[in-house]
Design goal:
Layout: H1 2-104
Length: 105
C-alpha cells in the first residue's frame, strides 16, 4: 500500500511539475505578447504625438504666412493711399497753376 501510495504521489508530482512547466511557458508567451503590445502602444502614442506636433507646426506656419500676407496687403493699401494723396496734390497744384495763368492772361 505504501509503495502504491508512493508511486501515486510520484505520478502526481510529475504531473504537477509538467503543469507548472506548461504554465511557465504560457506565462512567458503572455509576457512576450504583453511587451509587444506595450511597444505598439508606445509607437502609436509617439506617432500620434508627432502627427499632432506636425499639425501644430503646419498651422503655425500657415498662420504666420497669413499674418505676413495680411501685413503686406495693409502696406500695399497704405502705399496706394499715399500715392493717391500725392496724385490729388499734383492735380491741385496744376489746377492752381492753371488758375494763375488764366488770371494773368
Amino acid at each position: 500500500l505504501l509503495e502504491e501510495t508512493g508511486c501515486a504521489l510520484e505520478e502526481t508530482r510529475s504531473v504537477m511539475e509538467e503543469k507548472g512547466r506548461q504554465l511557465r511557458r504560457e506565462l512567458e508567451v503572455a509576457a512576450a505578447a504583453s511587451e509587444e503590445l506595450r511597444e505598439q502602444v508606445q509607437l502609436l502614442e509617439s506617432t500620434h504625438e508627432e502627427t499632432l506636433l506636425g499639425h501644430g507646426e503646419t498651422l503655425a506656419r500657415f498662420q504666420g504666412e497669413s499674418e505676413a500676407a495680411q501685413e503686406a496687403l495693409r502696406q500695399e493699401l497704405r502705399d496706394l493711399a499715399v500715392a493717391k494723396q500725392d496724385e490729388e496734390q499734383q492735380y491741385k497744384d496744376r489746377a492752381t497753376l492753371l488758375e494763375h495763368r488764366c488770371r494773368e492772361t
